[in-house]
Amino acid sequence: MSAKLKTSVPPRWRKEVQSILITDEQLARRVKILAREIERDFRGREMVVVSLLSGTVMFLADLIRHLNLPLRLDFIGVSSYGLGTESGELVFTKELRIDVRGRDVLLVDDILDTGKTLSRVVPKLRLLKPRRIKTCVLLNKAARRVEKIQADYVGFEIPDHFVIGYGLDFAERYRNLPFVGVLRPHIYKEVSQHVCKK
Ligand code: IMP
Ligand code: MG
User: Fold this and answer.
1) Residues 6+ away with beta carbon under 8 Å from 72
2) Does the C-beta of 115 come closer than 6 Å to ligand 1?
3) Is 119's C-beta closer than 6 angstroms to any atom of ligand 1?
4) Which domains are assigned to the chain?
C-alpha cells in the first residue's frame, strides 16, 4: 500500500475530517515507546494510574497494556463547559476513589492545550499527598498554552489544529476514529454559531 493511500481520510469521514494527522500505526508505535520510558522511570514500583475521563479511553487502554509493572487504575471526571472548541469553566464529575497517599501516581490526559485542566487537577491531587505525580499526555499543543505547565511524558507535539479521534472528541463525537485527524473548521464554527444563537 502506498503512503498516500494509508494516510487518506476514509470516505465516510471526508466531509468532517480534513486530514489525518497521526495514523493508527504511528499511534501504536509511539505508545509502545512511551510505555517503555515510563516503565524505566518507575523501576518496577507499583503505580496508581489516574486517568481523566473521557478523552483518554483509547490511549489509556493501549498504554497500560504495554506497562509491565504492577498498577491500579482510577479515573477523575472533569468536564469543561465551554462553547465549541474553547475550554470554559472546569467541573468535576467524578472524584478519585483509590487512596494515593504515599503512592507513585501517573496522571494521564489526552491533550495538553491551554493547560487549564492539568494546572487545576495536579494541585488537587497533590492535596492527597502522593509520593510523586508524573504527568503523561498523548498530544501537546504548545502554541495554545496559557498556564505554565508541561507534561513529563508526551506522545506527539502537534500544531494548533482542533483534532479528533483516538478518544478525542468534538461535542462528544468522533472518539471512535482509529486515527488522530484534523476537524474541518466549518464543523465547529457551525456548532458554535448554533449554540450562541440559542
Ligand atoms: P486544556 O485545559 O486547555 O489544556 O485542555 C484540555 C482538554 O481540552 C483536553 O483534555 C480535551 O478534552 C480538550 N481539548 C483541547 N484541545 C483539543 C482538541 O484539539 N481536540 C479535542 N479536545 C481538545
Ligand atoms: Mg474533551
Assistant:
1) 46, 47, 48, 49, 98
2) yes
3) no
4) 25-158 (3.40.50.2020)
